[in-house]
Amino acid sequence: MTETKQRDPQHQDHQPGIRDGMSPPPTDSAEGYKGSGKLTGQAAIITGGDSGIGRSTAIAFAKEGADVCIVYLEEGRDAKDTAKLVEQAGRRALLLQGDICEADFCKKAVDRAVKEFGGLDIIVNNAAVQYPQDDIADIKADDMERTFRTNIFAMIYMAQAGLPHLKKDGCIINTASITAFAGQPALIDYSATKGAIVSFTRSLAKSLVKKGIRVNAVAPGPVWTPLIPSSFDADAVAKFGSDNPMGRAATADEISPSFVFLASSDARFITGQVIHVNGGEHFG
After folding, report:
1. Which of 93, 148, 154, 271 has the fewest CB atoms nearer than 10 Å to its CB?
2. Environment class of residue 9 by beta-carbon count within 10 Å: exposed (0-12), middle (13-18) or buried (19+)?
3. Is the Cβ–Cβ distance between 246 and 279 less than 8 Å?
4. Where are the beta strands (DSSP E) in the chain?
């Protein structure tokens, strides 16, 4: 299922947003995904796993045989719904609520997941926020700090907490963005964090390659998730993704298979790379 070129004008007042009331509803439940045992017996932790790309990835991982720890900020209803679908796929789901901007919470989350699942094989750093401003002069200091803390600081915190538990063939997968490569005039600080994620991915991959731990990233183009109506105004939401070469935004279910690939042994010779799932955008 694909999204339409335009959607109803809509806006949510609080980030990172909830699924309820989105029109059209997001396609992020991996309903048509068929697992083949690629991640059998593994354990994953996913930040921002309650909705959007994180939700679809959690469910796809479960269908591939992995237990999943879903870390979320405060979207309890969405998180519980995602956990239910993970369990329906026959795997264990662990829900952990907290703020990944805090290093202590990241360590507690990883330790809890390891205790619950008996180990950790996959870290997916996916959670993000964005505060659009058309003029750099209008970027608020508090918003900018929150953007950097959520989007890049938390990835470092999660890596620091998780690496003592990752063994050979473990992996870290980070969610970057097309904005890291193409820029976005209304998302200057957000784009900067996504550029930092690309460099973080490449550097950490080189640091860990001799340990047999792979680090890669996925850079989506526009994707219809709760973050969009909770960060852009209604008029921008109605046109979101229409300037993409494919003329539409992606669904989260079109992004999550890339995470499965990078987590699986199919990608055992891939590290320090970025997969561009962006509907046909190219960069000079």
Report:
1. 148
2. middle
3. yes
4. 43-47, 67-72, 93-97, 122-125, 171-175, 214-220, 274-277
Mean pLDDT of 150-169: 98
Q: Which domains does the chain have, with CATH numbers?
A: 43-276 (3.40.50.720)
Structure tokens at 171: 């992996």
- Cis check for the bond before 16: say yes or no (omega within 30 of 0): yes
What's the rounded Cα separation, in Å, for the pair 218 and 65? 21
Local confidence band at 148 (pLDDT 50, 70, 90 cut-offs): very high
pLDDT band at 7 (very low <50, low <70, confident <90, very high): low
Exposed, middle or buried: residue 235 (CB in 10 Å: 0-12, 13-18, 19+)?
exposed
Q: Report residue 205 CA to chain centroid gap.
A: 18
- Strand arrangement, sheet containing 93-97: 93-97, 67-72, 43-47, 122-125, 171-175, 214-220, 274-277
- Report how far apart, in Å, the C-alpha atoms of 178 and of each of 97, 225, 246, 257 are: 28, 15, 14, 17
User: What's the predicted TM-score (pTM) here?
Assistant: 0.94
At 37, which amino acid appears? Answer: G
Residue 236, pLDDT above cutoff 70: yes
| pLDDT(6) > 60 | no
Sequence-distant contacts of 97-105: CB under 8 A, at least 24 apart:
97/71, 97/72, 97/73, 98/71, 98/73, 99/73, 100/47, 100/71, 100/73, 100/127, 100/150, 100/154, 100/157, 100/158, 101/146, 101/149, 101/150, 101/153, 101/154, 102/157, 103/157, 103/160, 103/161
Residue that the structure tokens 């699986």 belong to:
264
Is 190 marked active-site?
yes
**Considering 33, 72, 157, 190, which one is annotated as catalytic?**
190
